[in-house]
Design a protein that fits this description.
Blueprint: H1 9-28, H2 31-39, H3 44-62, H4 65-70, H5 74-97, H6 103-131, H7 137-166, H8 169-188, H9 211-218, H10 222-238, H11 240-248, H12 255-263, H13 267-283, H14 285-296, H15 309-340, H16 347-376, H17 378-390, H18 406-413
Length: 414
Amino acid sequence: MTGRRALGRQFGWLWAAFVVSSYGTGLRFGAFPMIAVLVLHSGPTQVAALAAAGRAVGALVAVPLGPWVEFRRKRPVMVAMDLIRCAALLSVPAAFALGRLSFAQLLVVSVAVATADIAFRAASGAYLKGLVPPEDLLVANGRFESTTWTATVVGPPLGGAAMGMFGPMTTVVADAVSYLLSALGLRAIGGTEPRPARAGAARLRAGELLEGWRYVLAHATLRPLFFNAIVVNGLIMATEPLLAVLLLGPLGFAPWQYGLAFAAPCVGGLIGSRLAPRLVARFGQHKVMFSAGVLRACWPVGLAFVRPGVPGLVLIMVVQFGLVTCCGLFNPVLATYRLDHTPSDRVVRTLTAWSVSSSAAIAAMTAVWGLLAALTGPRTAIAVAGVLLLATPLLLPRREHASLDTREQAASLT
């Protein structure tokens, strides 16, 4: 289980498509808030609404997509989602060039992109499970995870420089083009993908909308992992805007220092994702997942003690490096475990339920922590989130349950 294992030409094209779209998204980081402030002269309330609305409404719209995607060929769905994201993003510079760009359009585009993101991730997870042998899933997920963190290191600084030199529309166009290139890469995979067989009624039933949640909540190990992931991601993401307010406001950090403090530690994500296959081979999947899940909860509380100047900058980078390294280790192991323990005819619905719940939780917690910061101050709100994170390891499964679906076990042996 080494990171250098060759996974074949088809996976190579899938990974290449993921790389180009990830770097495009990294370049566009922060573009919509900047457009809202600099072009549309929006206030803090509108900018916060823009950040939350895409996740919240996108999650709601994506709910019926899980059952719909489940019984369709996954690669055409992924191509379609790439093209939808490309068209939605290109509408922003087009409207700007015509002098018709509005805040409402930014909201609609945010929702469209968020919805397509959820559908794409769910379809790609199911497609990956059929493309890669079970023993190579962790290596594949590790490569995706390392790409995500590498794009996070490189993309935002380059995107910030491009926005400063050419304006925020430049990075929106770059991200749109990256989705077009991703669609072309997915088309280049080639081969034939069998159409999933549908058991029971031919038409979508209302009860199928909840099938993903029913499966997760009935699974002895996925259930605690589901709640742990939702709470941890929600608390971490809820403090991001508060950190921006604290660092760029009272503590007087320069924008380049703020960017450096959060971009450089993402190297830890690359390290963690590369270590994942080796550690799992040595210690086992469950032990690595549990240990990384415990360790990642210990870091964020340190952000409540940040001070001005170089010591504060060093503290942030150390805390972020520890957090990101643990996340880079935990995430591909979780993604692999989730695919291993989900039957093929429920993968899309399960991943959709997971993504929808995570997006909704992040949106809700961001709003709650914004209110808490208004009442108590950003530092106190960050401290509260850090203390709550210390309790999240209680949600992790203490021992592994052998509950892999028998059909999947039989398939893995053939």
